[in-house]
C-alpha cells in the first residue's frame, strides 16, 4: 500500500473486520498475486460476488423506496446507481487507489490511478463485508456510500434517462473512444449557478448542454450528442 494502512481503510469504511485477510484479498490485484507465488489470492472472485451483492441490495432498496413504480423505471435507476462512473466516484471518495496491492509492473504503469481497478476493488470490498459480517454489513456500506441520501425523494433524478451511459454504450458498440466532457462556462449566483458543458467525440463536432449542476449539464450535452449521431433514446 502506498503509505496507507489497512487500519485507515477500516476506519474510513466504518467497519472492523473479524478476518482482515478478506479486506487484504479484496485489494489484491492479479499482478500482485502472481508475484506472491502459489496460494496467493487476488480479488477477482470477490469482485464477482460483490457485483451480485451490490445488484441485490440496490434492487431491494429501490423496490422498497418506490413500491408503486414500474420495473422499467426501477431497472433504469439501478443501472445508474451501479454504473462504472458512479462507482468510480465512490472509489475516489474512499481513496481506494492508495490501498491497492499491485504487482511491480502494474505499479509502474500507474495502476493506482486506473478507475477500473478501483471499481473492481470497491465491488470486492462489498463481497468481503458480506463474507465477514453478513448481508447487513454489506448493506450498511452500500447505503452509506453507493445509494443517495433520502432515496425515496430522488425518484425524478434516478428515473430520468441516463444519456451519458447511453452515449457510452453506443460508442463502445462501434469500438469508439469514450466521450469527453469539460465545463466551458459557469454563470449565476453561488446558490443558483448554471453550468455549460461541452461533450466531444472523435470525428464529430462538439455538443453543448446546460444545467443547474455539472452532472445535469453533462447529461444534456450527451443528449444533444446522441441526437447529432442519429441515436434515439
What does this structure look like?
- The chain is mainly α.
- It contains eleven helices and three strands, in the order ααααααααααβββα.
- It has helices at residues 6-13, 20-26, 30-36, 44-65, 71-81, 84-93, 104-108, 115-145, 155-159, 163-173, 214-228; strands at residues 180-187, 194-201, 204-211.
- A three-stranded antiparallel β-sheet has the order 1-2-3.
- A hairpin with a 2-residue loop joins strand 2 and strand 3 (204-211).
- Helix 2 crosses helix 8, helix 4 (44-65) packs across helix 5 and helix 10 (163-173) packs across helix 11.
- The protein is globular, with a radius of gyration of 19 Å.
Fold blueprint:
Elements: H1 6-13, H2 20-26, H3 30-36, H4 44-65, H5 71-81, H6 84-93, H7 104-108, H8 115-145, H9 155-159, H10 163-173, E1 180-187, E2 194-201, E3 204-211, H11 214-228
Antiparallel strand pairs: 1-2, 2-3
Helix pairs in contact: 2-8, 4-5, 4-8, 6-8, 10-11
Write a brief structural summary:
With 233 residues, the protein is mainly alpha-helical. The chain has helices at 6-13, 20-26, 30-36, 44-65, 71-81, 84-93, 104-108, 115-145, 155-159, 163-173, 214-228; strands at residues 180-187, 194-201, 204-211.
Amino acid at each position: 500500500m502506498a503509505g496507507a494502512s489497512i487500519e485507515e481503510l477500516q476506519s474510513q469504511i466504518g467497519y472492523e473486520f473479524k478476518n482482515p485477510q478478506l479486506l487484504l484479498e479484496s485489494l489484491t490485484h492479479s499482478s500482485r498475486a502472481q508475484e506472491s507465488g502459489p496460494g496467493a489470492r487476488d480479488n477477482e472472485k470477490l469482485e464477482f460476488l460483490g457485483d451480485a451483492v451490490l445488484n441485490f441490495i440496490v434492487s431491494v432498496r429501490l423496490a422498497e423506496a418506490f413500491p408503486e413504480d414500474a420495473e422499467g423505471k426501477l431497472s433504469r435507476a439501478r443501472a445508474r446507481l451501479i454504473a462504472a462512473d458512479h462507482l468510480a466516484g465512490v472509489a475516489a471518495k474512499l481513496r481506494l487507489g492508495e490501498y491497492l496491492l499491485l504487482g511491480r509492473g502494474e505499479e509502474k504503469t500507474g495502476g493506482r490511478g486506473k478507475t477500473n481497478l478501483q471499481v473492481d476493488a470497491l465491488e470486492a470490498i462489498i463481497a468481503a463485508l458480506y463474507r465477514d459480517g453478513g448481508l447487513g454489513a454489506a448493506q450498511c456500506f452500500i447505503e452509506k456510500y453507493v445509494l443517495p441520501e433520502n432515496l425515496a425523494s430522488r425518484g425524478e433524478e434516478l428515473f430520468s434517462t441516463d444519456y451519458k451511459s447511453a452515449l457510452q454504450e453506443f460508442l463502445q458498440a462501434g469500438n469508439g473512444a469514450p466521450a469527453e466532457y469539460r465545463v466551458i462556462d459557469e454563470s449565476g449566483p453561488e446558490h443558483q449557478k448554471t453550468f455549460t458543458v461541452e461533450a466531444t467525440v472523435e470525428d464529430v463536432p462538439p455538443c453543448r448542454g446546460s444545467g443547474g449542476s455539472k452532472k445535469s449539464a453533462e447529461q444534456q450535452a450527451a443528449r444533444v450528442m446522441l441526437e447529432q449521431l442519429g441515436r434515439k433514446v
